Amino acid sequence: MKKINGFLRITMIVLISLFLAISCKKDEVVDYTIPANLVGTNWKCTLATSEHNDVEYATLKFTSATEFENWIKVVGLGEIKDIAGSYTIEKDTITFNLGENGLLQGSIIGTKISLLSETSEGFLIFIKQ
After folding, report:
1. Which of 2, 19, 50, 78 has a CA 20 to 30 Å removed from the CA of 60?
2. pLDDT tens-place string over residues 13-51
3. Which residues contact 46 (CB under 8 A, 6 or more apart)?
């Protein structure tokens, strides 16, 4: 009986050690300055400005390693695709090609994309969802 109790104790210690080792694994940090890591991600910005009082939020949707869509949620309506285009990334700088509407540049830092908007009051901050 003592052999069985000793075996159970050792087995329990090994199982608990394995459980703790697995559960203490650190979260993996994703580098969103790599275009492939943006594919399929959504980034949300609340537009609480006097200029955008009818818009609840905007969402950047990265549909490929070179293409994006910007969707807006208008008060009282659903989401509407506002614009689509291409983008490029160099280091932490992201450049959106908006076609006729020109280029828009910003930076990617962790899970935030900051864009300087000429039509808005300063920066638009998009947070990864």
Report:
1. 50
2. 665 665 555 555 555 789 999 999 999 999 999 865 556
3. 56, 57
